[in-house]
Design goal:
By secondary structure, this protein is mainly alpha-helical. The protein folds into two domains: about 1-50, no CATH class; about 60-115, no CATH class. About 70% of the residues lie in helices and about 0% in strands. The chain is built from seven helices and no strands. It is flat. It starts with a helix and ends in an 8-residue tail after the last helix.
C-alpha cells in the first residue's frame, strides 16, 4: 500500500524507491511463506518422506480427507495410550510457558528512552 502511494504521488527517485520497496515486500513475503512451510513440513512431517513441498490446494484437500482422530489416538505415533495429553500437546504447553517467561524479560531491559 505504501509503495503504491509513493509511486502514485512521488516523482523521480521516489518512484524508484517505491518500485524497490514493492519488490522487496513481495519477495520477502514469498520467501517467508515458502521457507516457513518447508520448515513446518520438515519438523512435523518426519513420518513421511518429503518428496515436494505441500503448497497448493490439492495438499490442503488431502489433509482434510485424512482422519485426524485416528492419527491422534494411535499409541505408536505419540507414545501415549490415546488420552488427551499427547506428546505434541505437552510440547505445545511447554513452549507456551517458555514464551510467557522469555518474552517479558527483553521488554523490561529496554533503555529508558525507548521504554516510554
Amino acid at each position: 500500500m505504501v509503495a503504491f502511494i509513493l509511486f502514485a504521488i512521488g516523482t523521480g527517485p521516489i518512484k524508484g524507491f517505491a518500485v524497490t520497496l514493492a519488490i522487496g515486500i513481495v519477495s520477502s513475503l514469498f520467501t517467508a511463506i515458502l521457507v516457513t512451510r518447508a520448515l513446518v513440513q520438515i519438523a512435523y512431517g518426519k513420518r513421511k518422506s518429503i518428496k515436494s513441498l505441500s503448497i497448493g490446494w490439492e495438499n490442503i484437500m488431502a489433509i482434510e480427507n485424512n482422519n485426524p482422530l485416528e492419527q491422534q489416538n494411535n499409541p505408536d505415533r505419540n507414545g501415549s495410550n490415546g488420552d488427551a495429553t499427547t506428546a505434541s500437546t505437552r510440547r505445545r504447553k511447554n513452549h507456551a510457558v517458555m514464551a510467557k517467561v522469555a518474552i517479558p524479560k527483553p521488554i523490561t531491559q529496554l533503555p529508558p528512552n525507548l521504554a516510554k
